[in-house]
Amino acid sequence: MKKTVAVYFGGRSTEHDISIITALSSVIKPLEMAGQYTIIPVYITKQGRWISGPKLKDISLFSSGKIEDFIKKAKPVTVTFDGGFMLNKTRIDINFPAMHGSFGEDGSLMGVFRMAGIPFVGADMDSSVIAMDKVLAKQVAEANNIPTSKFVFLTRDEFLADQVGETAKVAATLSYPLFVKPAHLGSSIGITRVTTEEELHNALEVAAYYDNKIIVEEAVANLIEVTVPIIGNKVPKPALIERPLATADEFFDFENKYIRGGGKKTGGAKQTGSQGYSELPVVLPEGLDDKVLQTAIATYKALGLQGMGRVDLLIDSKSQTVYFNEVNPLPGSIYAHNWRAAGVSTVDLVNELVQLAEQRFSDNSQLNTTFSSSFLQQF
Question: Which of 1, 87, 135, 360 has its CA 20 to 30 A from that of 260?
Answer without folding.
Answer: 135
